[in-house]
Amino acid sequence: MNFFKAGLSILFSLFVLQVKAQSDTLNIKSYAEQVMIRLNLDTNLEKYILSQGKNDKIELSINNKTRTSVSVDYRVISATISFSPKFIPGNNEDDLKGKSSYTDLSFRFFPKRFIQNLYYKKVKGFYVENMKDFIPDWKETDAYLQFPDLKVLSFGGTTSYVLNKNFSAKSIYTHSEWQKKSSGSWIPYLDYDVSFFTNTINEVKNKEVQYKIGGNMGYFYNWIIKDKVNIAPYLSVGLGGQFSSSTEENKKKENEQFVTLRMEGGLHVGYNSEHLLFGARMSFKTYTYQKNQEAVENNNLYGLIYLGYRFAPPRVVKNTYDKVQKKIPVL
Predict the structure, then answer these.
(1) Which of 54, 57, 105, 117 has the greatest number of C-beta atoms within 10 Å?
(2) In 3D, which of 47, 87, 40 has the Cα closest to residue 63?
(3) Among candidate residues 81, 67, 70, 82, the one with its CA nearest the CA of residue 37
(4) pLDDT digits over 91-109, tens only?
């Protein structure tokens, strides 16, 4: 809980800075008429923590930790597909940690000052990371306790609104714009998600469905250095609810409701020119609630290195988009 209090204190300090900075004017350069293809190499640490007190906890993590992805952006549409190749070092420790798979697909739209994000995520195959807490003489060369059939399938999204019209969220998210002057903005947003947890232990099948919704407030700042370099930190906190329904084979269904806390933050550093761009990003997400005097956490630590290139769109792409835009003006 102290972690969330610290986040609220930081957000209040950022509010004071934002009031002082509102008088600044901002010019934004748009690359909306160009297609951008971006190659990404990222590391994604997905972990679930169940704890009772300080010394009684279990940490479930996935084996696949490094992914490659390809992003394509044009006007308000942004699409990304990613996967975890086995040939990358550290992704193929199946003998010790078991087999894991991580796949996600996301779409992001920017109608006016709104940001709409939709995603799909599938994770399968977990292992107990903190084995030494259960077996004191356990060594890193020993096999981990594995849950190969534990699978998490998620569908969700976020709906955000940029309060400061002089702040370009696209310059951070999709690089389809570039801010010429430093500026920040408060961004309130809703997050919503439905997740399906399935597992089989000793031929007994278990299933849990979780519905989550929450309200969040975040502050984003884009600091421009020498025209072509930017540093962009952000932090947000939120409160929400979770509604879950769990079933075990041949047993009665159980329904539960929880109050949830959420925190997210990160830092982006990038270089931008007319065609070439590259940079790096780090972010974290933490999501927690109490269940039967037990704290349940879902933590995600994300790191990204990217290289992108912009170019004029093929005529067929431009014409098709223009036709769709006439029917859907919000695009």
Answers:
(1) 117
(2) 47
(3) 70
(4) 667 788 888 888 888 888 8
d(CA 182, CA 161): 19
Place of tokens 């098709």: 320
In 3-state terms, what secondary structure has residue 239? strand
Full domain range(s) for residue 303: 2-327
Residue 118 β-bridge partners: 107, 157
What single letter denotes the amino acid at residue 94?
D
Whose tokens are 């995520």? That residue is 121
| Structural domains of the chain, count | 1
- The answer for 121, left when phi > 0, alpha when psi is -120 to 50, beta otherwise, is beta
Q: How many Å is the maximal CA-CA distance in the chain?
A: 67
Successive 10-residue mean pLDDT values, the chain, 331 residues: 50 46 58 89 86 79 81 79 72 80 84 92 92 90 92 96 91 87 94 94 88 96 92 96 86 87 95 95 91 84 93 85 76 62
| C-beta of residue 187 within 8 angstroms of C-beta of residue 237 | no
pLDDT in tens, 109-121: 888 899 999 999 9
Which among 21, 287, 33 has a CA at the least distance from the CA of 163? 21
